[in-house]
## 1
Amino acid sequence: MSIYDFEVNTIEGEQTTLQPYKDKVLLIVNTASGCGLTPHYKGLQALYETYKDQGLVVLGFPSNQFAGQEPGTEAEIKEFCELNYQVTFPLFAKIDVKGEHAHPLFVHLVDHTPAPYHTGDIEWNFVKFLVDREGNVIKQYSARTEPEAIEADIKDLL
């Protein structure tokens, strides 16, 4: 199954796939609004603004699996991100990113990250996956990896 075939729901509740992002470089991130790492939104937005015209898309997937740090509704999450971090990159509905009910997209991302760039299971909010224009997972970055630290890898794929 291609990464573009996974069904997801937008933060507005519309069902879609990742097909609209085919031929783009993707940075897929599990996010949370009440986390010590929430300021990563600022860096993610900066990367998106800098490189979107060259083909980068950041995709944010809120998850409430880590210490209940994303308890809000999709509308609350969207408003928080827009007001506090001026987020304009695509956000999606809350999902589980690990465990028994993990969304198939995140199972795929973890399972298809090549060695030595596979950091293991999703350990916390803001784990980042870099995907090339052909839909291949290139690298997995730990939650604590600052978005700016990924810039050189993004530029290489663009």
## 2
Amino acid sequence: MFEKIEEMKIQLDESRPLEKYTLKSLREKMLLEWTYHSNAIEGNTLTLNETKVVLEGITVGGKTMREHLEVINHRDAILYVEEIVQKKEVFSEWQIKNLHRLVLKGIDDDYAGIYRDQQVFIAGAKHTPPPPIIIQEKMEEMLWWYHKESQSLHPIERGAMLHAIFVGIHPFIDGNGRTARLLLNLELMKNGYPPIIIKVENCLAYYEALDESHITHHYDDFIRLIASEVEDSLNLYVSVL
């Protein structure tokens, strides 16, 4: 599944470091599109160009304060992901809570970085997240799996499964999807891959593969979906070499 991806990654690695301004423009493009699509999947109505001007500090008329904050917050969360990667910090519960705190900052400060204390349901999904009383236990199990069992997996498998397991737990009242995609890209970036973008037009296949993984505990379809997105991102980077 990963042969073509690994060939492209080797090609990219052999060309590092990329030209300064090429790397800067790629980063800006990915940050914008990652922010736009991740928010759009969750119902944010700002267009790609409107997202761009909000990132530049301009207010868009007719849009809610929440939608503006979702853009700014997501940008700040990406910067935090980049900081974790640069510092080579060990993955931890603290990082997860900090990422979520950034995602919900100013939107719902009472629950930003705080595990939910209520039962929630995922609209359109067959899977029901666990009750709040066992969330801490489930998160500890996930972290144990990550640090022990998952280390023998390919980084794309590990990142995809981390995303799926996290969403299945749904530990927060809101912002789980954005946080999960940040965690996925954190894992990819730590292992030298460019970030991926789950596009809003592909969200049906994304949700269906996620729900299947939660119901069957088989992750192959979701891993393949993520691998396809990794290939797309690598294609973009390799195209500029």
## 3
Amino acid sequence: MRILRAGDHKRMPWKNGKGETVEVAVSPPSASINDFDWRISMATVAEDGPFSIFPGIYRTLAILDGNGMVLDVAGSSPVLLTTASDPLAFPADIPVEARLLDGAITDLNVMTRRDGLAHTLIRINVDGSKTVRLSPSTCLLLCHHGALSFRLDGETGALAAGDALLIEGATATVLEIDGEARCYLGSITAG
């Protein structure tokens, strides 16, 4: 279990060069944008346009901030995503066009290599105390807004906005959370 502080997240250009991404965590740790097994990152989308193509990758996206955007994923009807929407899963190796509703947005992306991994992404609102059941996998809890304290298998810690808790090799267990926060939990499993 490791706490990943917001100030330590790695900033890099998008694969298509049209923006910047903030990498929260990646596996293996030295992986580039082209050879990761899994990756969790945030990006600011400031203009309409195409998403980067990632061959062999499956992606789930959630809107963290902003008024939303419409995603036109090839072969599907356009989907409106806002901060209230459930995360949207789609292949990252097909054409995807984004159209902003009213100004820039920030999104959260979980991406896994399709030939061996799978993932889920859920939003968790914390107002007081909450318990979250973790599946046997690699889990990352991102504290997007607010602050929280946590307990897991006798260890404790705290997360501020932008911080994340990375739990590798989690066994089915319970994460106890206290505070006021909007969080996202990504779980990565062998597929």
## 4
Amino acid sequence: MKAIGIIAGACLLLYIGYRTYRFLNLDKGLAKKIEQGAIVLDVRTPAEYRTGHLKGSVNLQLSRLHTAKLPLDKSKTYITVCSHGLRSVKAMNLLKEKGYKVFNGGALADLENEIKQ
């Protein structure tokens, strides 16, 4: 019984840490950036994208961002998004290293909520 309590406590701490990480890494003012023409770049797999996505978003799987030539315009602003927020941070960092102007939109549900507000 004690082991179950320890495991449950560890899971709770991991979850709280994960939510805090997501909150701290999520950029602010994204709805306004989208209104000003920023492109939502959904870095989930094509199968995930087909299950639901933001209207007007572009699907470019995270693994494809490692290629030398990307079908993206460096004069545009991008907002990365994925299912839980971890891949969007990785995508943002990869694109920034390549010279793109990019912001982290986190999880798709988080960005959808910000746009609705």
